[in-house]
From TrEMBL:
It comes from Limosilactobacillus coleohominis 101-4-CHN. Keywords: Oxidoreductase. This is Oxidoreductase, short chain dehydrogenase/reductase family protein. Belongs to the short-chain dehydrogenases/reductases (SDR) family. Pfam families: adh_short. CDD domains: SDR_c. It comes from the Bacteria. The lineage of its organism: Bacteria, Bacillati, Bacillota, Bacilli, Lactobacillales.
């Protein structure tokens, strides 16, 4: 079963990677349920997809709240009759040096980037296990593979989801539930991610770096599309995506 006809729940769908992925998958015949907190953005994106002949619906969600993630998945079932894929993509990156001790931001990253992903896995697991089919896709980061200065806690959250995703894949294979997992490790992608960095020096450094290296989120959308499009007995478990000019 290819992208066409699949029902895909996408968190962080109101901008950046989630928005680009929603538009591409819908253009290729998937039915997409968009989730994020900014309703005006979700409405606009869903409307654009529907006007262009695709099928999209949306529901506001704060991924740190398990009941809201469950409601998003339920909304996909109500609108489209099933759920085949969840794209756990919502995330935040308020980077700073550890010495700045910005503990509020550390906690927010843990809540959104780790607990948000776990809430997504929890919401679909009973459904995917019962139907013996499903695909969990999660956006980690190259900061979940390597250490970067300024990325002590962000990187920790992205390493954490790498582990949860790979163990989910291994256990599903052992249990025979046919749940595929795909973890994405993008490098610099031009989105709104840098808009919320509170530490001024880090924000300025990263903005300069992205100006030189950042690429379009469409690159990640194409990778997600490719992973979903594989035959059901093929699980592309990991992708690392760099701008060609980023070392
Ligand atoms: P954006 O800031 O454009 O997108 C982030 C999305 O997450 C938004 O849709 C935002 O929507 C949503 N979001 C944030 N907090 C919450 C929350 N509590 N509940 C629900 N949704 C939330 O950045 P990107 O597209 O770049 O980010 C997508 C993912 O990609 C993130 O996980 C990020 O860590 C990862 N990533 C990005 C890279 C990059 O260079 N851009 C590189 C590597 C990984 P809203 O505010 O409406 O809730």
């Amino acid at each position: 079963m290819a992208v066409k006809g699949k029902v895909v729940v996408i968190t962080g769908a109101s901008s950046g990677i989630g928005e680009a992925t929603a538009k591409l998958l819908a253009a290729n015949g998937a039915m997409v349920m968009l989730g994020a907190r900014r309703e005006d953005r979700l409405y606009k994106i869903a409307n654009e997809i529907n006007v262009n002949g695709g099928r999209a619906d949306y529901r506001t969600v704060d991924v740190t709240k398990p009941e809201e993630v469950e409601a998003l998945v339920k909304a996909a079932q109500d609108s489209f009759g099933q759920v085949d894929v969840i794209f756990n993509n919502a995330g935040i990156m308020p980077n700073s040096p550890m010495s700045a001790v910005r503990t509020d931001e550390w906690n927010k990253m843990i809540d959104v980037n780790i607990k948000g992903v776990l809430n997504g896995i929890a919401a679909v697991m009973p459904i995917f296990t019962a139907q013996k089919h499903g695909h969990i896709i999660t956006t980690s980061s190259v900061a979940g593979l390597k250490n970067y200065v300024g990325s002590g806690v962000y990187g920790a959250t992205k390493f954490a989801v790498k582990n949860a995703m790979e163990v989910t894949r291994m256990e599903s294979a052992n249990e025979g539930t046919n749940i595929r997992t795909t973890t994405l490790y993008p490098a610099a992608i031009n989105t709104e991610l840098l808009d919320h960095i509170g530490d001024e020096q880090t924000a300025s450094n990263m903005k300069n770096f992205y100006k030189q290296h950042g690429i379009s989120p469409d690159a990640i959308a194409r990778v997600v599309n490719f992973a979903i499009d594989q035959p059901e007995d093929v699980d592309i478990s990991e992708f690392t995506i760099y701008p060609t000019n980023q070392a």
